[in-house]
Amino acid sequence: MIRTHPQLRALAISCFLPCFLLHFLGCASDGFSSGLGLADAHREYSNSLRWSKFDEASRFVPAEERADFFARMPDFDRVRFTDWKAGPWDPQAAEEENQALIVVTYRGFRMTNPIEFQAQERQLWTREESDGNWRVRSDFSGPPR
């Protein structure tokens, strides 16, 4: 049996136990605490959709709405987005009112037909009172599945 010095054992426990607990306690939560302003949250969400990273985008969707969010996304074996553009909105008013409606137009194409199409998404953003994070409710009028 290997014996360790009591001080070395105490040092190891005091260093590694907090890291261990923070890692596992953080995983037990929603895992989302962005601290982002609306403009950054909107950009991260829209870029995630543009690149078909739905898991990343879903961080901004309220937990109780995520299953529906995934069900409404286009089949990206058949469709690709190439770009997106947000309609006009007032970031200062949104920050003051804790909500904003942003209409985003995505450009893309179907894998079977290289003709470009456009799809719109109405993003209703609200700031959560509990943690101050921005969440989106999406009304996506995308290409046919």
Describe this protein with a few key phrases:
Nuclear Transport Factor 2, Chain: A; 145 residues; 4 strands; 5 helices; alpha+beta; four-stranded antiparallel beta sheet; 30% strand
Could you tell me the CATH topology label: Nuclear Transport Factor 2, Chain: A
The description of the largest β-sheet is: 4 strands, antiparallel
User: What number is the mean pLDDT?
Assistant: 80
CA(first)-CA(last) distance: 63 Å
CATH C-level class: Alpha Beta
**Number of separate strands:** 4
Number of domains: 1
Question: Your description of this structure?
Answer:
It is a single chain. By secondary structure, the protein is α+β, with helices and mostly antiparallel strands. The protein has a single domain, classed as Nuclear Transport Factor 2, Chain: A. 38% of the residues lie in helices and 30% in strands. The protein contains 5 helices and 4 strands, in the order ααααβαβββ. It has helices spanning 6-28, 38-50, 54-58, 66-72, 91-97; strands at residues 79-86, 99-110, 113-127, 134-141. Mean pLDDT is 80; it is low at 16-31.
Detail the topology: elements first, then pairings.
Elements lengths: L5 H23 L9 H13 L3 H5 L7 H7 L6 E8 L4 H7 L1 E12 L2 E15 L6 E8 L4
Antiparallel strand pairs: 1-2, 2-3, 3-4
Kindly summarize this structure in a few lines.
This protein is of the alpha+beta class and 145 residues long. It has helices at residues 6-28, 38-50, 54-58, 66-72, 91-97; strands spanning 79-86, 99-110, 113-127, 134-141.
